Input
Amino acid sequence: MPVKEILNDTESKMKKTIEATKREFAEVRTGRAHPGLIEGLHVDYYGTPTMVKDMASINIPDPKTISIQPWDASALPEIEKAISASNLGLTPNNDGKIIRLNIPPLSEERRIELAKMVKEMAEKSRVSLRTIRRDSNDKLKKMKADKQVSEDDEFKAHEAVQKLTDTYIKEIDGLLADKEKQLMEH
Output
């Protein structure tokens, strides 16, 4: 595997880590209604785990309300059950056609709890980035040992991998700072 391929693979994996972090952060409640809170919620739909966004339209009629209108009304009880079982702390109101979720303001205690949870998510993402870096560096060392690349090329590739790692860790830190700011605003 050429050095360029290793670097491309490394960057691709790191981008996926960033995307996963963004998805996780979107599911953390900030006291404001937004579709990301429930889009990824899995519902048992005729025995198949299905995401809410794939079976209903999700609307935000106002900053404190999410409305979920399934395309199949018979799915309402299952969606309601999934929301109740989630760790969102929201109570679904089902009128037979639409489920409405009222987003209550977060207590200071809950904000602190969520901020801690978000920090842990960010740390897991950083660990994931470092693991990707280690795997890439191991491949590069093996290539040098197998005389597939020169010592200079290996050194330059290690530097490139480290630059990618630094860039994506900085991005995680930025996402974390934004999310913490959202959590702490009233």
